[in-house]
């Protein structure tokens, strides 16, 4: 109740003055009664003259007025409770907004939307508080009207002024104390409102900072995407160059392989020609040895025309025979024929040299037929 009085000093003071005025009216009945017309305060605060023959009971008037004042106080208290509830909801909303700032980096878009909703809610709340303030002013106006009625009643009951002076002074002192407490509470409320406005400004600053950070992050992401695109283009260029280099290398390798195969084929052809030539020279070389052996053939016996042997001759590089034997002889070749063939070889030494040194063979074979 003290908090309510401190928050609404004007309304409470008006109600106290009205109660004192009613008390003076009641006290006025203790004086000798006269036929003066009495004034009764109605709930609508309008004055009506009462007929001299109808005397209003002071206790009933006091009960009606106290009920009206109590209803007014209850209504003001309800309005104050609603205002405090609204402030509490606003504080809770600010606290939620502060908690949501911790998730700003992960929920930038959602947070911005929630902050916008909180701002709209705060605007709605300020509009509602303004409406409450207007209602409070209307209540004050009604209280002022009641004060005017009380003053008019006080003017008509000047006889009771001295008796109510001490009570009025005490009430004034209490009113001043209550007003001082109310001013302190108003100042505290103003400071709290300033602090809430400061928090709201800080929230807006954080929101702007978050938007700037989001903008910078978007720019950084765009630069990163451009860098990735550039790197991909560079990679494709390098891959294309590597492909061209590989194709060129493969082409060069294919050309080198073709040249090598051609050279190998040419070398093979030359080797074949050389081998053919060597074979021809060897054949001539063997024929020359065979011919010289036939030239040195001597035998007194009659030899069959079918007699022949394969002579196996081992020689030195200068044509000297180191050994000779006959192999694979026909059945017509007698022992005398074989011996005569070996003697012919011995007489034919030194054997003819090969036309080229590489044709020299230490062991040579040829078929001998005289």
Overview of this structure, please?
The structure is a single chain. With 370 residues, this protein is mainly alpha-helical. It is 72% helix and 7% strand. It folds into 2 domains: 2-214, no CATH class; 296-368, Fusion Protein Consisting Of Minor Coat Protein, Glycine Rich Linker, Tola, And A His Tag, Chain: A, Domain 2 (2-Layer Sandwich), CATH 3.30.1150. The protein has 6 helices and 5 strands; from the N terminus they run H-H-E-E-H-H-H-E-E-H-E. The strands form 2 sheets. It has a 3-stranded antiparallel beta sheet with strand order 4-3-5, with helices on one face. A two-stranded antiparallel ribbon has the order 1-2. A hairpin with a 5-residue loop joins strand 3 (309-315) and strand 4 (321-327). It starts with a helix and ends with a strand. Residues 30-53 have low confidence and may be disordered.
Topology:
Blueprint: H1 2-7, H2 9-28, E1 39-41, E2 47-49, H3 58-101, H4 108-156, H5 161-295, E3 309-315, E4 321-327, H6 335-347, E5 363-368
Antiparallel strand pairs: 1-2, 3-4, 3-5
Features of this protein?
two-stranded antiparallel ribbon; Fusion Protein Consisting Of Minor Coat Protein, Glycine Rich Linker, Tola, And A His Tag, Chain: A, Domain 2; single chain; mainly alpha; 5 strands; 7% strand; 370 residues; three-stranded antiparallel sheet; 6 helices
